[in-house]
């Protein structure tokens, strides 16, 4: 079941990675507790390392496998 993610889509975090990378010009690694399992965000951009997603506590770069599209 391949999902087609696009910029502007609402997504839900379904897997919390061991660390998260900020989606900034100079990315930083952050502990995984800055985002919560089930938290919803909006896709801002596509990057080689994944999707830039805006959550409550900031924008983070996440792999597509960690996300599911919210209808």
TrEMBL record:
This is DUF3148 domain-containing protein. The lineage of its organism: Bacteria, Bacillati, Cyanobacteriota, Cyanophyceae, Desertifilales.
């Amino acid at each position: 079941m391949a999902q087609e993610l696009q910029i502007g889509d609402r997504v839900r975090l379904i897997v919390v990675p061991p660390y998260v990378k900020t989606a900034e010009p100079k990315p930083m690694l952050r502990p995984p507790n800055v985002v919560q399992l089930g938290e919803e965000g909006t896709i801002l951009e596509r990057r080689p390392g994944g999707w830039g997603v805006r959550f409550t506590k900031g924008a983070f770069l996440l792999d597509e496998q960690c996300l599911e599209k919210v209808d």
